[in-house]
Amino acid sequence: ASATPAFSTLSRHEALPIDGTSGGIITSTSNSFNGLIEGINLTINAASDEVVTIDIKETNDGLVSQVGILIDQFNKLHDLLGDLTSYDERTNKKGTLFGSSAALRIEFDLANVLSSRFRSAGSTFSLPQLGIRIGEDGTLSFDKTKFKAELLADPEGVESFFTQFGMASCRERV
Fold it and tell me: Which of 9, 21, 50, 158 is the one with CA 20 to 30 A from 107?
């Protein structure tokens, strides 16, 4: 959307012409225009005699960040389970959950889920397709570039993998 940024004070209201003068005028009681587009807040800092074009593009940065947080949290859980189920031969020290079948079952189920392939509404069937890999030490790594590429290629498939099919179906297994 393009907007002519010149605004004027009309009885303590700011006026913002949209698409020149034929698109209408939007007013605000301050220099902020909020709620014109869901999720977008626009603040006018100064008047201008030049036409200003505002381009708004959707990004997936928030989603990529959330998947990164998920990976970090999984790795923390993995490390915690490792500490709790550990045994040190030198000191004969056992972790609090050493030998616990419940702790071992959690580790097994998580590894099984992470290495599985799932039916999906799109082309995404496994975590490695999304750049999420299990290392030899059992921790996860996240290739953000691969994730972004898969998300751009099949956004609905990635969404259904996490929400409807694939990973969403794992809740009963873990």
Answer: 158
